[in-house]
Amino acid sequence: MSTITATNRERSTGALPLEAAANDDQVLVDVRGVRKKFCRSLKRSLWYGVKDIAGELVPASRPSASQPHDSSRSELRKDEFWAVDGVSFQLRRGECLGLIGHNGAGKTTLLKMLNGLIKPDGGQISMRGRVGALIALGAGFNPILSGRENIYVNAAVLGLSKRETEDKLDEIIDFTEIEEFIDSPVQSYSSGMQVRLGFAVATALDPDVLILDEVLAVGDATFRAKCFARIGKVLDRAAVIFVSHSESQVQRICNRGLFMSKGRPEYLGDTASALIAYRSSRTGQADDQRDWICGDDVRNATSGADKTHLKWGDKLVFRVNIVCDRPISVSNLYIQWHRQGIAFMESHHNVGLEAPIELNAGPNELLIESSPVHLAEGKYDVSFAAFASKGKQTVAHTYCAVEIQVEGPLGAGPAVQSPCTITCK
Ligand SMILES: Nc1ncnc2c1ncn2[C@@H]1O[C@H](COP(=O)(O)OP(=O)(O)OP(=O)(O)O)[C@@H](O)[C@H]1O
Fold it and tell me: Which end of the chain has the lower number of beta carbons within 10 A, N or C?
């Protein structure tokens, strides 16, 4: 386990109590009272930097108690502010933490500390095992080296031998789908290509901890769907920390949420509640639409092979968990089928024709069954949405949540569109 320790004493968050001591093997990330300060003035920041380094190198130049100015002090000097202030959490194997917050909340700074790119000014970080990270576009790549060379360099940094890297090389290049450019310098790659390479490398090298910062915002819908499937696989053996401004993405893959505001951890708990806290803070008051989607279990409910593989004429059955903060009547349900990012078939449950679905305050489980699916053979991504107030209010929405393999009698080819109804049990 690697440990990044700040120079000052550990500090509890105050807002959120520390979890139980991390002596269990499954804890891969243990973060305790981590803080990081920055300076708004570049000139001053350089001056503070020189003073701090001098203070560390030459004990005699360390300020005395009457001149308290070492960088790890909890007091802020002129123009300094806490970019991250007292964050604590633990992550176990199989857990995915969604890090949410407004611009400048300190999410990226926290990830950079977790990845060892910058040193905390307070608190302690312990990471167990291999850390795969995709924090900024192009970060970790040498722009003048080719994609292939960068794969070798990254793998070596993560401790893989040349042989191990060669074993994974084809899989990584296949995943990127940019084989024809793999020997071109990375500086000539588009942002989408850089994300493809970065994501493929970070996830293919068997990380124990995977750190992803806002990366899935770049890249097309088909690639995003592929990334989600890959994250699902990584989660079987790793802990994932995922930063995104997309609530549906966070909802889709995270089972825990940390809402940060101005560097402070405002809420740590289940994803749904963290998103509610985030939403409420955005409007400055409780969101009157916050009985929208709160949690979904589509990924888990369809992980069985019988459900992710459909034969021609099979029904799609899946389970959605929606947590509401008050009772609500769902008026419309949609299942949308996508192929290569294009939505082409929708299934409806329309309350105009059928009874509304009454959801209670708290967790609700819907078992949704489509009519028989008549689609050509191929892979499809399925999205789900539930609306109230005749479609005016979104209760639940999850984009490309499940990948379904349809074994059709027609072979690969254009999909056969057929109207489809949903029944809810
Ligand atoms: N190297 C730096 N020097 C000074 N200030 C910095 C530095 N890096 C980040 N900051 C500041 O720290 C604060 C937190 O930045 P950070 O990038 O962590 O926020 P974020 O939550 O990731 O934001 P976003 O959602 O916009 O990506 C911001 O006010 C930012 O301006």
Answer: C
